[in-house]
Amino acid sequence: MLNVRCTHGFLSSRVNQGFVITARNVPKSGLSQKDFVFVEADLNENKLNFYGAEGIKPSTDAPVHRVIYEKLPWVKAIVHGHMQVEGENVSVEKANLWPCGAENEALEIVQIAPKEKNSLWVVNIYGHGFVAMIGDRDPGSALQGLTQLTFSI
After folding, report:
1. Contact 85, 122 (CB under 8 A)
2. pTM of the model as a whole
3. Sign of CA dihedral 38, 39, 41, 44
4. 40 burial class (0-12, 13-18, 19+ CB within 10 angstroms)?
5. Residue 24 class from Cβ within 10 Å (0-12 exposed, 13-18 middle, 19+ buried)?
6. Can you list the positions of beta strands (E) in 1-41?
7. pLDDT by residue (tens digit) across 47-102?
8. Residue 136 and residue 28: Cα distance in Å, rounded?
9. Residues 4/129, Cβ–Cβ less than 8 Å
């Protein structure tokens, strides 16, 4: 059974000194600039520093994305969704389910993921969803490849 703790997935992209990520609890249809938050790559006093529209917070998975970007320099963008994925470029090994935003989840994903650049690599999380890591600065072809995979609940 799939445990969907969140109603929406999350998107992020590496930028200088950090990454931009979709805001918490924002529907993903019709996204605009105000629906994204900049998160600094480095922790300050063990806290994420982020900047966005007033009252807007980054996705609860921002700590997971931060660790993936830190540990896997080839990753340029991340897509997180709440389905299981099968197909080419999908890891056979799965990550364990952790509370939302737990860095332990990211560390497991990093352990499973290739250490060298890939256009697209997907890791499923037991009972929760998937994390797709994109290694191209222009993610168009990787996103097209993502749409060719088989998704199930």
Report:
1. yes
2. 0.90
3. positive
4. middle
5. middle
6. 10-15, 18-22, 36-40
7. 889 998 888 899 999 999 999 999 999 999 999 999 999 999 999 999 999 998 89
8. 22
9. yes
